[in-house]
C-alpha cells in the first residue's frame, strides 16, 4: 500500500495534466501566492479642497480654447482688488498683454475691461509696463487680420486715459504712424484701387473710434499739458516753490525708466542710417511738446487736413469726430 | 480692370499676401509696408523678451523669492514660443518679396545677419533655420552677395562646433552644423556652375586657411571637410586647394591631420568614381575587329584567337589606368599629388612631424600606415629624397607585423631610381632575410618576393647579383605563389639587366641580345642600368609608330597625289638621304623585314616556338655561342630593327613636330597604333622597345592585396556544398521528374490504387492473376515497368 502510493506520487510528477472543458486550468506547481490579508485598509484623503493659488491659472491665459482664456481673464478681473498689490500682478500683466493680438473678439474685449479695471485701481502698474504695451499695440496695428487691427485703437484709448504721459513721451511718433496705418492714410498710398480696398475695411463705428483716439493722441501730444493739479499739489507740499523749477531739472525724474533713451541695457539691431531710426522711433526726439508739434506739422498735417475734409463732407458720426479734430488743429496752429 | 479686381481682394493670411505682392507689387505696397512694420515690432518684442528674462530675475531677486523667478522665466520663454511662428512667417514673407521693394527693405538682410550672428544663443532652433534659409533666398535673388553669405555662415559653423555651445540643452548643434555645412556646399556649387567664381573661391579658401591656422578644437576639421567635399565634386581643383590640404595634413590635431592625409590618398579615387558614374563606358575606342584583321589571325586556330582576346583585355585595362592617371587633357585628371607646390618640403615635414618625431605616438598603427602610404606615394611620384623613411620601414618589416602587406606596398612605392642603391639594399636584404626563407609560410615568401620585385622594378640596382640569384632559385618552389613570384622576378630582370641572372635564366631574347652586343664589341655593361642616369621618355610616346604608319600610307598611295603632305614627304626623304646615307635603305629594308615576320608568325607559329625552345635547351646544355644558322640571321635582323627603331624615336619626333601640328585624329591613330604594338608584344610577335616602359612606372600603385599572390585555403563543408549547389542552378529540367506535378490536379485513380491497403488488394483477381502469369509475361511486365521508371512518371 505505502509502496504503491509512493510510486504513484513519484509518477504524478511526470504525468501530463489533462485540461478539461469548463474547469479552470490547474495552477502550476511553482506558483507564488501573492494574495495577502490585512485587518484594516487606509486610504489617503481625497484632495477635494480647491487650490486658491491664482498663479497656477496664469498658464490658462495661453489655453488653446478661447472661452477658457476669456473666463480666466474674467476670473483675474474679479480677483483684482486682492492681487493688485501683490507680486502676482506683474506676471499677470506681461502674460495678458500678448492677448492684444488674440484672434477671438471676446478675449480682446475681456482684456480691455481688465486693463480698465487695473487702470482704475492702480495706474502705476500700467505705466510700468507701458513699453511692452506700446510694442504689442503697434504689432496689433499692423496685424494682417482686420478685426485685430481695428481693436488696437481701443487698447490705445484705454492706455491714453491712464498713462497718457508715458505713451506720449515714449512712443508718440510710433503711435501716430500706427494710427495712420490703421486709418489707411499711408504716406505713399497713391494707388486708388488699393485705397478703395483699404476703406472697405472700416465701417462707421470703428472709424469713429479710430478718429476719437486720434483726437486724443493729437491733443495730448501737441497741446501743453495743463498740469495744474500737480503744480498745486507741489505748491501745497513744497514751501520753497520759487526754487522748484530750477531744482527740478537736476533731480531724477519721477517717471519710470527715465534714462531709457540712453539704451544702456537695450538689445537692438544696429541700422546703417542711425539718424533715421532715431527719428522713427522718436524716443529721444519727441520727448517735449515743441518737437512733437514740429514733427506733427512736418509729417502729418497735410494728409490729415486732406483726409479730414473728405470725412467732414461725408458727414455722419465720423464727420462730427472729424470736425472735432479740425477744431483741435486750429487751436494747435493758433 | 484686372488690377483693380485683384486689389479688391483683401488678404487675410501671409501666404496669400505674398502671392498678391509678387504679382502686383505696386498695388499692395501699403500692405507690404504694414507687414514690414509688423515684422519690425515682432522683432522688437523678440529682442525685448531676452531682456525680460534678465530684468524679471533682477526684480524678483530683490523681492527675494526664488520660486517666483523660475516661474517668470518659464513664462517669458513660452511667451516667445507663440510669436516665433509668426516671426518666422514674416521673415519668410519679407525675404520672398524683398526684391520688389529694395528701398524699403535695405536694412533687412543686415538685420537678419545680426540676429543670427549675435543672438544665435538665445534664438530657438526653428527661427535660426528659417533665418538661414531666408538668407539663402536673398542670395539667390542676389540681394546679398555670396561673399556676405559665406561670411555669415562660417562663424556659425565655428561657433557650433565648439564644445561649449553644442552642450547646451536645446541648441540643436548637430542639425545646425549640417544645415550650415550643406548651405555652404550648395552655395559654392551654384556659384561655380559654368565658369568658376574665382573671387569667391579665393576668399573662401582664405577662410579655410585661417581656420587651420587658429588653434581651436573642431575648427580645422571643417576647413578640411569642406575642402575635401568641394574637391570631390570638382568645384575646387587648383593648387591652392591642395595647399590647404597640406596644411591640414601637417596639423597637430590627429583628426585634421588624418583628414588631410586621407584626402591625398583617396581624393582622386573618390573623384574618379564620382565622374565615372556620369560618363558612359565607351570601350576606349579600340577597334577589335580591325586589329584582328591586321594581325590576320582570323584564319588560325581558336587558341590563338583566345590569346588575342586576352591580350586586348589586358591592354584595355592598362589603357584605363593610364587614362585615369596619365592624359593631361581636361582639368579632372590632375591629381592632388601632382598639384603640390613643394612636394619635397611637404614630405620632409610629414615624415619629421608625424612619423619619426616624438609626436608620432598619437597615431595608432592604422593611421601610421596611412601616413606611410601617402609619404611613399609622394616620394614615388615626385622622386623625392627622404632617406630616413627607408630605415624607418625596417622596423616594421617583419612577418608578424599587423597589416604588413600594406607596409610592404608602401615600402615598394617609396623606391625610385634616384635613391642611392646602398639605402635600398639594406631594406631589400631585410625583406629577403625576414620573409624569404625555407621556414616560413608560402604566402609570406611570396609576399617577400613580390615586394622585392616591385622594389627592383622601380630601382633595379637595389639588389645585388648574388641575392638575386638566390631568390631566383625559388622558381622551383612547389607553392604556386612563390613560384610565380620568383618567375616574375626573373622576367623583370630579363628585361632590365639580364647579365645579373644566371645564364640559364636569361631566356632566348635576352641572351641573344647579349650575344649580339658581345659580337659587336660594344661595352658589355652599357645596357645595364646605372645609378643617376635618367632614362626618361622624351617627346611623345610612340610617335615613331605614327611616322612609320604615315610612310606606309604614303607608299601605299604611291606618290601620285599632289598633296602638300606628299610634297612634304618627298622633301623629307630627300633630306634624310642628304643627312644620312643609309637611312633610306634602312627604311625600306625594315619595312620588308616587318612584313616577312608577320608572314612567319602567321604560317608556322608553333614550329617557330618549338625551334626557340630547342634553341634554349641547347644553350643550357652546351653553354656556348653555338647557334642555328637561321637564328643567327634572325638575330642580325633584330639588331637592325633595334637600331632603326631607336633612330626613329629620336628623329621622328623632331621630324614630325617640326614639320606639322598633330591633330586630334593623329593622336587617336597614335593611340590605336600603340595598343596594336603592345598587343603584338604580348603575343611575342615583336618585342623591340619593351625596355623603355619598364622604368617609367613610378606612379603606379602597388596593390597590397596582390603581394601575397593567390592564396588558396581549404574550403569548409558549407562552402563546398554551396559551390556544388551553384553548379546545379538552372538544370532542373535535366533531373528526375518523379513526384513532381506539372500542373495542379487531384490524385488520380492510379495513385489512389497504389496507396490502397495491401490486405484489401491481395484477394483481387488482378493481383492473384499475377502469380499465375507465365514467366515470359512476368518478364515483359517487369521490363515495361523498368523502362517506365527510367522515363519518369
TrEMBL record, chain A:
Q: Does the keyword Nucleus apply?
A: yes
Q: Which domain of life is it from?
A: Eukaryota
Q: Does the keyword rRNA processing apply?
A: yes
Where is the Pre-rRNA-processing protein Ipi1 N-terminal domain positioned along the sequence?
125-218
**Any GO CC annotation of this UniProt entry:** rixosome complex
Keyword annotations for this protein? Nucleus, Ribosome biogenesis, rRNA processing
**Pfam family of the protein (one):** Ipi1_N
**Location of this chain's protein in the cell:** Nucleus
Its function, per the record, reads: Component of the RIX1 complex required for processing of ITS2 sequences from 35S pre-rRNA.
What family does the entry list? Answer: Belongs to the IPI1/TEX10 family.
PANTHER family for the chain: REGULATOR OF MICROTUBULE DYNAMICS PROTEIN, TESTIS-EXPRESSED PROTEIN 10
What is the protein's name according to its record? Pre-rRNA-processing protein
What organism is this sequence from? Naumovozyma dairenensis (strain ATCC 10597 / BCRC 20456 / CBS 421 / NBRC 0211 / NRRL Y-12639)
Gene that this sequence comes from? NDAI0C04490
TrEMBL record, chain B:
- Residue ranges occupied by any SDA1 C-terminal domain in the UniProt entry: 745-792
Superkingdom assignment? Eukaryota
* Coarse class of the protein's main subcellular location: nucleus
Ordered alphabetically, the record's keywords are: Nucleus, Protein transport, Ribosome biogenesis, Transport
From the Swiss-Prot or TrEMBL record, state where the protein is found: Nucleus, Nucleolus
- One Pfam family hit: SDA1_C
Question: Where do the record's region annotations for Disordered lie?
Answer: 58-78, 504-536, 553-648, 723-756
Q: Which InterPro entries match?
A: Sda1, SDA1_C, SDA1_MD, SDA1_N
Statement: the UniProt record of this protein carries the keyword Repressor: no
- The SDA1 middle domain extends over 590-727
> Which residues, if any, are the signal sequence?
none
Q: Where is the composition biased (Acidic residues)?
A: 560-569, 601-610, 619-634
Biased amino acid composition, Basic and acidic residues: 723-751
**A GO biological process held by the record:** ribosomal large subunit export from nucleus
Per the record's keyword annotation, is Isomerase included, yes or no? no
Residues in SDA1 N-terminal domain copies: 93-478
Gene Ontology CC annotations of this record: nucleolus
Here the segments flagged for biased composition (Low complexity) are 570-580
Record family assignment: Belongs to the SDA1 family.
Provide the function of this protein. Answer: Required for 60S pre-ribosomal subunits export to the cytoplasm.
Q: Under what name is this protein listed?
A: Protein SDA1
Task: State the organism of origin.
Answer: Naumovozyma dairenensis (strain ATCC 10597 / BCRC 20456 / CBS 421 / NBRC 0211 / NRRL Y-12639) (Saccharomyces dairenensis)
Gene for this chain? NDAI0B00980
Amino acid at each position: 500500500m505505502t509502496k504503491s502510493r509512493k510510486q504513484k506520487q513519484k509518477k504524478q510528477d511526470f504525468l501530463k495534466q489533462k485540461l478539461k472543458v469548463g474547469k479552470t486550468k490547474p495552477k502550476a506547481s511553482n506558483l507564488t501566492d501573492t494574495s495577502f490579508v490585512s485587518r484594516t485598509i487606509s486610504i489617503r484623503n481625497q484632495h477635494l479642497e480647491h487650490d486658491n493659488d491664482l498663479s497656477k491659472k496664469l498658464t490658462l491665459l495661453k489655453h488653446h480654447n478661447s472661452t477658457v482664456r476669456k473666463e480666466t481673464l474674467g476670473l483675474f478681473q474679479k480677483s483684482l482688488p486682492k492681487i493688485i498689490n501683490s507680486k502676482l500682478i506683474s506676471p499677470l500683466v506681461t502674460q495678458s498683454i500678448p492677448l492684444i493680438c488674440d484672434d477671438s473678439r471676446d478675449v480682446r474685449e475681456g482684456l480691455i475691461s481688465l486693463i480698465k479695471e487695473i487702470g482704475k485701481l492702480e495706474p502705476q502698474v500700467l505705466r510700468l509696463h507701458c513699453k511692452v504695451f506700446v510694442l504689442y499695440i503697434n504689432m496689433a496695428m499692423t496685424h494682417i487680420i482686420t478685426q485685430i487691427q481695428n481693436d488696437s485703437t481701443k487698447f490705445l484709448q484705454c492706455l491714453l486715459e491712464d498713462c497718457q504721459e508715458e505713451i506720449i513721451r515714449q512712443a508718440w511718433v510710433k503711435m501716430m504712424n500706427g494710427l495712420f496705418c490703421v486709418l489707411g492714410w499711408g504716406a505713399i498710398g497713391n494707388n486708388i484701387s488699393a485705397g478703395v480696398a483699404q476703406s472697405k475695411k472700416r465701417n462707421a463705428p470703428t472709424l469713429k473710434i479710430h478718429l476719437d483716439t486720434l483726437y486724443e493722441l493729437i491733443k495730448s501730444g501737441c497741446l501743453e499739458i495743463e498740469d495744474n493739479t500737480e503744480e498745486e499739489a507741489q505748491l501745497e507740499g513744497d514751501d520753497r516753490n520759487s526754487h522748484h523749477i530750477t531744482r527740478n531739472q537736476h533731480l531724477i525724474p519721477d517717471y519710470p525708466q527715465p534714462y531709457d533713451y540712453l539704451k544702456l541695457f537695450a538689445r537692438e539691431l544696429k541700422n546703417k542710417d542711425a539718424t533715421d531710426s532715431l527719428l522713427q522711433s522718436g524716443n529721444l526726439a519727441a520727448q517735449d511738446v515743441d518737437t512733437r508739434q514740429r514733427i506733427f506739422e512736418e509729417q502729418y498735417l497735410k494728409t490729415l487736413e486732406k483726409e479730414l475734409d473728405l470725412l467732414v463732407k461725408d458727414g455722419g458720426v465720423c464727420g462730427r469726430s472729424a470736425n472735432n479734430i479740425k477744431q483741435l488743429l486750429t487751436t494747435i496752429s493758433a | 480692370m484686372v488690377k483693380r479686381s485683384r486689389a479688391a481682394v483683401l488678404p487675410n493670411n501671409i501666404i496669400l499676401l505674398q502671392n498678391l505682392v509678387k504679382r502686383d507689387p505696386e498695388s499692395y505696397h501699403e500692405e507690404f509696408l504694414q507687414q514690414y512694420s509688423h515684422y519690425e515690432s515682432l522683432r522688437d518684442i523678440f529682442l525685448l523678451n531676452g531682456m525680460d528674462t534678465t530684468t524679471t530675475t533682477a526684480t524678483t531677486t530683490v523681492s527675494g523669492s526664488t520660486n517666483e523667478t523660475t516661474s517668470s522665466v518659464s513664462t517669458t520663454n513660452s511667451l516667445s514660443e507663440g510669436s516665433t511662428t509668426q516671426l518666422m512667417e514674416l521673415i519668410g514673407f519679407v525675404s520672398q518679396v524683398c526684391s520688389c521693394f529694395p528701398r524699403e527693405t535695405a536694412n533687412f538682410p543686415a538685420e537678419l545677419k545680426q540676429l543670427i550672428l549675435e543672438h544665435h544663443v538665445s534664438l530657438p532652433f526653428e527661427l535660426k533655420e528659417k533665418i538661414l534659409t531666408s538668407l539663402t533666398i536673398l542670395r539667390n535673388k542676389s540681394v546679398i552677395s555670396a561673399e556676405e553669405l559665406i561670411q555669415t555662415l562660417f562663424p556659425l559653423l565655428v561657433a557650433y562646433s565648439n564644445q561649449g555651445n553644442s552642450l547646451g540643452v536645446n541648441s540643436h548643434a548637430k542639425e545646425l552644423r549640417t544645415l550650415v555645412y550643406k548651405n555652404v556646399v550648395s552655395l559654392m556649387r551654384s556659384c561655380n556652375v559654368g565658369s568658376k567664381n574665382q573671387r569667391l573661391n579665393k576668399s573662401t579658401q582664405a577662410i579655410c586657411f585661417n581656420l587651420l591656422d587658429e588653434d581651436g578644437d573642431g575648427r580645422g576639421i571643417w576647413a578640411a571637410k569642406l575642402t575635401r567635399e568641394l574637391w570631390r565634386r570638382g568645384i575646387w581643383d587648383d593648387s591652392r586647394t591642395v595647399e590647404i590640404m597640406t596644411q591640414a595634413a601637417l596639423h597637430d590635431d590627429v583628426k585634421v591631420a588624418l583628414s588631410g592625409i586621407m584626402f591625398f590618398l583617396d581624393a582622386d579615387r573618390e573623384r574618379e568614381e564620382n565622374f565615372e558614374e556620369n560618363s558612359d563606358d565607351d570601350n576606349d575606342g579600340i577597334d577589335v575587329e580591325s586589329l584582328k584583321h591586321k594581325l590576320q589571325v582570323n584564319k588560325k586556330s581558336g587558341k590563338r584567337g583566345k590569346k588575342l582576346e586576352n591580350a586586348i583585355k589586358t591592354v584595355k585595362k592598362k589603357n584605363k589606368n593610364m587614362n585615369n592617371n596619365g592624359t593631361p587633357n581636361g582639368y579632372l585628371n590632375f591629381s592632388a599629388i601632382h598639384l603640390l607646390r613643394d612636394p619635397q618640403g611637404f614630405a620632409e615635414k610629414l615624415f619629421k612631424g608625424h612619423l619619426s618625431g616624438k609626436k608620432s605616438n598619437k597615431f595608432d598603427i592604422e593611421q601610421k600606415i596611412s601616413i606611410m602610404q601617402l609619404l611613399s606615394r609622394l616620394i614615388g611620384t615626385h622622386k623625392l629624397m627622404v632617406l630616413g623613411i627607408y630605415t624607418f620601414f625596417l622596423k616594421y618589416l617583419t612577418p608578424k607585423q599587423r597589416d604588413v602587406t600594406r607596409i610592404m606596398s608602401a615600402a615598394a612605392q617609396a623606391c625610385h631610381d634616384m635613391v642611392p642603391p646602398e639605402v635600398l639594399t639594406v631594406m631589400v636584404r631585410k625583406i629577403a632575410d625576414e620573409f624569404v626563407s625555407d621556414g616560413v609560410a608560402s604566402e609570406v615568401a611570396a609576399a617577400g618576393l613580390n615586394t622585392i620585385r616591385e622594389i627592383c622594378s622601380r630601382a633595379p640596382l637595389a639588389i645585388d647579383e648574388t641575392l638575386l640569384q638566390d631568390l631566383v632559385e625559388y622558381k622551383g618552389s612547389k607553392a604556386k605563389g612563390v613560384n610565380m613570384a620568383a618567375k616574375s622576378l626573373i622576367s623583370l630582370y630579363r628585361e632590365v639587366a639580364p647579365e645579373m641572372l644566371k645564364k640559364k635564366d636569361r631566356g632566348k631574347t635576352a641572351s641573344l641580345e647579349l650575344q649580339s652586343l658581345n659580337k659587336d664589341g660594344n661595352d658589355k655593361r652599357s645596357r645595364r642600368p646605372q645609378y643617376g642616369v635618367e632614362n626618361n621618355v622624351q617627346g611623345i610616346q610612340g610617335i615613331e609608330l605614327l611616322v612609320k604608319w604615315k610612310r606606309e600610307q604614303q607608299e601605299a598611295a604611291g606618290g601620285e597625289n599632289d598633296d602638300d603632305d606628299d610634297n612634304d614627304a618627298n622633301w623629307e626623304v630627300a633630306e634624310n638621304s642628304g643627312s644620312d646615307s643609309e637611312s633610306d635603305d634602312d627604311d625600306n629594308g625594315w619595312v620588308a623585314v616587318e612584313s616577312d615576320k608577320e608572314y612567319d608568325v602567321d604560317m608556322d607559329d608553333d614550329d617557330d616556338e618549338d625551334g626557340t625552345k630547342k634553341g634554349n635547351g641547347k644553350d643550357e646544355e652546351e653553354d656556348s655561342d653555338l647557334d642555328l644558322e637561321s637564328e643567327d640571321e634572325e638575330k642580325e635582323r633584330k639588331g637592325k630593327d633595334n637600331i632603326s627603331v631607336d633612330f626613329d624615336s629620336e628623329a621622328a619626333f623632331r621630324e614630325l613636330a617640326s614639320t606639322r601640328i598633330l591633330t586630334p585624329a593623329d593622336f587617336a591613330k597614335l593611340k590605336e597604333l600603340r595598343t596594336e604594338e603592345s598587343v603584338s608584344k604580348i603575343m611575342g610577335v615583336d618585342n623591340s622597345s619593351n625596355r623603355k616602359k619598364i622604368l617609367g612606372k613610378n606612379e603606379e600603385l602597388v596593390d597590397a592585396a596582390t603581394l601575397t599572390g593567390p592564396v588558396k585555403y581549404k574550403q569548409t563543408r558549407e562552402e563546398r556544398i554551396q559551390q556544388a549547389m551553384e553548379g546545379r542552378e538552372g538544370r532542373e529540367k535535366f533531373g528526375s521528374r518523379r513526384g513532381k506535378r506539372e500542373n495542379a490536379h487531384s490524385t488520380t485513380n492510379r495513385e489512389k490504387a497504389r496507396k490502397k491497403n495491401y490486405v484489401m488488394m491481395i484477394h483481387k483477381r488482378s493481383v492473384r492473376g499475377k502469380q499465375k502469369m507465365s514467366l515470359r509475361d512476368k518478364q515483359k511486365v517487369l521490363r515495361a515497368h523498368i523502362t517506365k521508371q527510367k522515363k519518369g512518371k
